[in-house]
Amino acid sequence: MQGLADFIPTATKTAYLQQLLAVGFDVLDFGSFVSPKAIPQLRDTAEVLAGLDLSRTRTKLLAIVANQRGAEQAASYPEISYLGFPLSVSETFQRRNTNQTLPQARADVAAMHALCESRGKTLVVYLSMGFGNPYGDPWSPALVADFTAELAALGIRIVALSDTIGAATPALIAPLFKELIPAFPQIEFGAHLHTTPTTWQANVQAAYEAGCRRFDSALGGIGGCPMAADTLTGNLATENLLAFLETQGEPLSIDKAAFQQAQALSQQVFVTC
């Protein structure tokens, strides 16, 4: 929703997210505690949260934050289990995305992790530009590994490699996961892929075969990162991901009827797309 210009009414957001909670996903990225000037679409996250009924779902909630102030706000809600923060391996993109230098962002990660530990939350760090950098900043698999080592030293337990601009290819994805997963067994690695209809399957398969079992997705593949200024590359479509996982024989605890209802509702919610 974050990149849409037309504001989606709070009641509509809440109803859509409530339907997603009925599906049975492990985690639902439901909103963001960020500046309303930066992301006006998500200025009602607190109101949306207040309207959700969590009594009949096993799904845990994740909120994205962009700084310590947002983390403090998100951590104050007992309903939220995860805080997500985008740490970029690109100085340029860190400034564009959270208006911070890399040293500032790294300091925030340490402070947010300590906050989460004290509040019974878990910090999820997204390594933005994890598969390449269009801005001319340094990038290499070794650099990604260095960032991961720093996060591991802090005690971070979930790291999602993020293909912010759709630059990932199987040739980049597979070696990174094959190197990182055995090197940091204490970390659960995820794949946050921005894909096209022609690239999603090969990229998902490369991550899966390299050992990744945590994937982010969105119904219909809608969305992307508005700070990356790329409107052609969307999120990984949930329906595609589920179909792929079924071919791999993965046991999925998904309520298919609820999922179909969520798909139908999403077509109404995102009609302006």
TrEMBL record:
Question: Which intervals hold domain Pyruvate carboxyltransferase?
Answer: 1-260
Concerning SUPFAM superfamilies, the annotation shows: Aldolase
Q: One Pfam family, please name it.
A: HMGL-like
Q: Where are the bilayer-spanning segments? A: none
Gene Ontology molecular function: hydroxymethylglutaryl-CoA lyase activity; metal ion binding
This protein's source sits in the domain of life called Bacteria
Keyword Endoplasmic reticulum listed? no
Alphabetized UniProt keyword annotations: Lyase, Metal-binding
For the biological process aspect of GO, one term held by this record is: ketone body biosynthetic process
The answer to keyword Metal-binding applying to this record is yes
Q: Which family does it belong to?
A: Belongs to the HMG-CoA lyase family.
Record-linked PANTHER family: HYDROXYMETHYLGLUTARYL-COA LYASE (PTHR42738)
What is the name listed in the Swiss-Prot or TrEMBL entry for this protein? Hydroxymethylglutaryl-CoA lyase
Which species is this record about?
A: Hymenobacter setariae
Lineage start: Bacteria, Pseudomonadati, Bacteroidota, Cytophagia, Cytophagales
